[in-house]
Specification:
Blueprint lengths: L3 E4 L4 H9 L3 E4 L6 H10 L4 H19 L5 E10 L2 E3 L5 H11 L3 E12 L2 E14 L4 H10 L2 H6 L13 E5 L2 H4 L4 H10 L2
Parallel strand pairs: 1-2, 1-3
Antiparallel strand pairs: 3-4, 3-5, 5-6, 6-7
Helix pairs in contact: 4-5
Amino acid sequence: MIDKIVLASKSGVRKKILEDNKIICRVEPSNVDEESIKESLLKEKATPTIISKNLAELKANKISQKFINEIVVGADSVIDLEGEIISKPNNRMEALKILQKLNGKTHQLISSVCISRGGFMIWNYTDKASLTMRNMSLLVLEAYLKKISDVALYAYNVYQIEGEGRSLFTKIEGDEDTIMGLPVKQIKKYLSRLE
């Protein structure tokens, strides 16, 4: 099994998931302009799943073109609320608005991963999880946000499922690694077939 890869992401969470699964990774952020790509894809009526897949592939291919002999992993996660993509917040006011939007509703969290070599995708996988948020008052949502550090808030979209964020939900269906942004079991299966 290949156990050394390049991760085309600056996500500390994704790096930790790989390392916890004994996959050594070197971080090379792709610095892809995700928001403009999302906007462009939305104008073309792309689904949240297609957007997640395209962003993961773009990130992996971009870094793979620089390191053509290495295995590069790119990943992307989006929140799909009844067909609307919810992007990461840029500040705490936006974070509160996102929580209010998700409040009392079920949304899908879509995580895509792409593996590239030589500048081209050689494998990809998309997984979904379903999360139902409790119906909470504005005061409870504000109190939750006060407990969350800036790093956690901007890294995980507005909830950190392995920490404080779990308390926001009445129902969580799906793989926890997928929710955290990297369906690692499928990555390991694929890497075990590579030499």
